[in-house]
Amino acid sequence: MNQIKLVDVINQLLKSKTAFVAFRQPQNDEPQLFAGGEFSCLDSLDIVPEHGFVFHPFDADNEKIRFLKPQQISTGWELQFDFSTLSSQQNKVFQAIVAPYVGSKTEYIRQAASLISKLRSGHLKKVVLSRLIVYELGEVVDWGRKFEQLCQKYPTAFVYVLSDGQGLFWAGATPETLISVNNQRAYTMALAGTQAAKLNPEEKYFWQSKEREEQQYVTDYIAGILVDLGVKKLTISETTTHLAGKLAHLVNHIDFELPAQFSALSLAQKFHPTPAICGFPKEKAFELILEKEQHKRSFYSGFLGIIQENKTADFYVNLRCVQVVGNQLYSYVGGGLTADSNPEKEWAETVLKSQTMLSLFIK
């Protein structure tokens, strides 16, 4: 077999409508490619094959979990790749892809004001409101090259391009780890608060009380779950500033020993959805999101990543992502509302977050 560039393989897989996911882990130079087979539709993650890629929606009660057990796994930017071993299998439980609803700024401001009013009345402490931005793709997109550009621009992010060959197409560069497990040693992060990254790397960041409060909700929530599960050796770092491209966030790094009776998948499902992408208390915030948001989040703010024998896994929250339907590209963005939030400022924050992906298309 001849050497072939990963960027060319991605484009050929898209052309042949073969299921695949290309991804690159944070702080890693080598991308991986899972190709061939089908993205099976699962009702739950109770039973999954030994090795594959999980694509979990925000609301698993209303959208199927997807799982790819690939026919071929490759690593690197230059591959020994054999297309003849791949089959374009059709998903046995086909779900038609519908273009999501895109609301106006007026609708967003009204929704945000209504939620902030509930927050001020003490019904809950935080809720995340999301929206969509639509962009028309005027020509055939070189997604292999876009993947390469994302990897170059966002070295600390989990970067991916995914297609089931039947219309499901997503791509993203997320800064947030949901959980990483290797031989019972586990890691997660509490990530919240957003501002534009400083042009001068020596310049200090100032975080308002609203952002620090939002961050503390997320940290307390994750720590609370781990303590309730009986985790003994739990280490939480000090709160620091985490840079992700042109954005800065507050972060706490959390290391712990995973109890033997829990799997990486079961813990991921306990964490999801975290206050960072849902709110707090979680149940009330989740209900409000389903009630107020006129679009379905689909796989935005769900989680995705690889699993091997349920003992080694790396899952990430699906943020800074886009969905492609036909020739329309939909950017999903959101922000955490608290009692001190200002709707116009929250709108501006979503515009800032959308640049992670849209900057590849809009110059």
Name the features.
alpha+beta, 363 residues, globular, ten-stranded antiparallel sheet
Q: Care to describe what's here?
A:
By secondary structure, the protein is of the alpha+beta class. It has one domain: Anthranilate synthase (4-Layer Sandwich), CATH 3.60.120.10. It has helices at residues 6-15, 105-120, 143-153, 209-228, 264-271, 282-292, 343-358; strands at 3-5, 20-24, 32-35, 39-42, 51-56, 65-68, 72-75, 78-80, 126-136, 158-163, 169-174, 177-182, 185-196, 234-236, 240-244, 247-257, 279-280, 303-308, 312-317, 321-325, 328-337. Strands 4, 5, 6, 12, 13, 14, 15, 16, 18 and 19 form a ten-stranded antiparallel beta sheet that branches. Helix 1 (6-15) packs across helix 3 (143-153) and helix 2 (105-120) packs across helix 7. The longest helix is centred in the middle third of the chain and has 20 residues, at 209-228. The protein starts with a strand and ends in a 5-residue tail after the last helix. 43% of the residues are buried.
How many separate helices?
A: 7
User: In angstroms, what separates the terminal alpha carbons?
Assistant: 38 Å
CATH architectural arrangement: 4-Layer Sandwich
Helical content band: 25-40%
The tally of domains stands at 1
Q: Would you give the CATH topology?
A: Anthranilate synthase
User: Order of helices and strands, N to C?
Assistant: EHEEEEEEEHEHEEEEHEEEHEHEEEEH
Strand content: 25-35%
The tally of strands reads 21
What is the average of the pLDDT values?
A: 91
Main sheet properties = 10 strands, antiparallel
Derived from helix and strand composition plus strand pairing, the structural class reads alpha+beta
CATH classification class: Alpha Beta
Inertia-based shape: globular
The CATH homologous superfamily name equals Anthranilate synthase
Which radius of gyration do the C-alpha atoms yield? 20 Å
* Regions with little confidence, pLDDT below 50 for 5+ residues: none
